[in-house]
Amino acid sequence: MATLVHCLRLSTKFALRGFHCSVVCPARGNRTPRLPVEFIENRKHEQIAVGAPVTAPIDECEAPVIELSKEEVIREIESKKEQQLLSQEANEGLPPFQRLTDADKTLSVAMQKTMNIKSSKTNKKFIAVEGRRLIEDAIHAGIKFESIFFSQKDTIRGIQLPESSLTRCYKVPYSNLKIWSTLTTCPGITGIFSQPKSQMLKSLKPGEDRSEDILPLNLVCDQVRDPGNMGAILRVAAAVGCNQVITTKGCVNIWDPKVVRASMGSVFRVPVIQQPSWDELGTLITSENASLYLADHREFLAKGPRDYTDVSFSVASGPIVLVVGGETHGLSARATDIAKATRIRIPLACGVESLNVGTAVAVLVYEIRRQISHSAV
Q1: CB 324 within 8 A of CB 224
Q2: What is the C-alpha separation between 79 and 73, in angstroms, rounded?
Q3: What domains sit in the chain, N to C, each tagged with a CATH number?
């Protein structure tokens, strides 16, 4: 009993100094109960009344109140304003964006959609475009924008994104973007776009709304399966001013990320029609009085090909159709079956058997452009 009384006196003594104190009772082997709250509060008011210093808060969960001088308050307000200004300058020219953590699945879900993994809610197809320049080309071409992922603010600063409720911008760790990148060095920015629907093959003649620089030239890709070659062809076709590019069955998808990258954005600058039938193409050639040329270097056929420099492309009364094949498979049987086709070749020296299809297309289409331009003078 004496021990318990002694413990209570100790607790009272420390409480009067502004501390909560729990003292172990040797007799009972546990802690004594805390003093009543009313008692502690009364002692606190008494201390304040007599001006006694309070060395610690009465409530353990209550933080001590720190009084600031007027000058300190002013400095604190100015510091917060300066931080706000710095934050505004850092975000100037940036669209509203959301920060994602390493564990967030938003990026992986978006990239899976570009791999033709169909969602249960929609059958839309999407394409992934890496790099700021290609993203800007896609936006300028009017491709429907879905979302954008970037790792550094400077990579997205100043990009004129379309004003749409569907536009979503996310700042993600660079390591996450690198996982999904198809490039050796990840550019740190990837845009997700809705894949444009393939146009229908309606005519081989340039429309009246097309620029004067557009040639009456339709380039047909037959069994071109390499993404790098297809991208190079699209780049040349856009540069020379082809009316349209037609890809037949067996060609690589023009929206493959490697094709988009190899075309340097030209896939957004030239009309491309994918996988029309050869019967449809043959009907248009006949009905529109088109001139058909097959890029074919095979000498063993009965009628050998003519050198492209010996052909007068400018005398064609209708549109021109040039068919090129892949380096490995060449022209298909359906292409060679079309009647009234002129087979042309590029002369080669030093035992070189063939040219890269992108290079061959560049040689042929610029010769066609040269002849047409000279005839128009």
Answers
A1: yes
A2: 10
A3: 2-50 (no CATH), 98-194 (3.30.1330.30), 217-376 (3.40.1280.10)
Return the biggest CA–CA distance within the chain: 126
What is the number of helices (H) and of strands (E) in the chain?
A: 11, 14
Distance CA 219, CA 299 (A): 23
pLDDT of residue 373: 87
Q: How far apart are CA 246 and CA 129, in angstroms?
A: 22
What pLDDT sits at residue 20?
46
Mean pLDDT, residues 17-39: 50
pTM: 0.71
Report how far residue 278's alpha carbon sits from residue 257's, in angstroms, rounded to the nearest whole number.
27
User: What does the alpha-carbon distance between residue 325 and residue 291 come to, in Å, rounded to a whole number?
Assistant: 18
Strands (DSSP E) contained in the chain are 24-25, 30-31, 98-99, 126-130, 145-150, 168-171, 189-194, 217-222, 244-247, 272-274, 291-295, 306-307, 320-325, 341-345
Place of tokens 């060449």: 330
Q: Give me the amino acid identity at 317.
A: S
CA distances 8 to 14, 39, 195, Å, are 10, 13, 80
For strands 244-247 and 168-171, give the pairing: unpaired
Q: What is the DSSP letter of 162?
A: -
Q: With contact defined as beta carbons under 8 Å apart, do 282 and 338 qualify? A: yes
Q: Considering only residues 61 and 355, tell me which one the structure prediction assigns the higher pLDDT.
A: 355
